[in-house]
C-alpha cells in the first residue's frame, strides 16, 4: 500500500535514504563539519546513480566474427 504513489519510490530509494540518515547520524556523533557531511552525501548520490546505469550492449568482439 503506497500512500504517496506520485513519488514512485522503490527499494533503491529507500536504501539511499537510509544511507543518508546513517551519514547524518555519523555527522552528529563524530562532529563532522558541514563539508564532510556534504561530501559523504554526494558520494552516496554518485554511487546510487552509478548503480542505476545500464551497461552498453555493444558487441565488443564483433570484429573477430568476420
Descriptive account of the structure:
The protein has helices spanning about 10-30, 35-50. The termini are far apart. The chain has a domain at about 10-50. The protein is mainly α and about 70 residues long.
Which stretches of 5+ consecutive residues score pLDDT under 50?
Answer: none
The beta-strand count equals 0
The radius of gyration over CA amounts to 19 Å
SSE order, one letter for each helix or strand: HH
In angstroms, what separates the terminal alpha carbons? Answer: 54 Å
How helical, in percent, are the residues? 55-70%
The structure class reads mainly alpha
Summarize the structure.
With 66 residues, this protein is an all-alpha fold.
Helix and strand layout, with pairings?
Layout: H1 11-30, H2 34-52
Descriptors for this entry?
66 residues, mainly alpha, 2 helices, 59% helix, flat
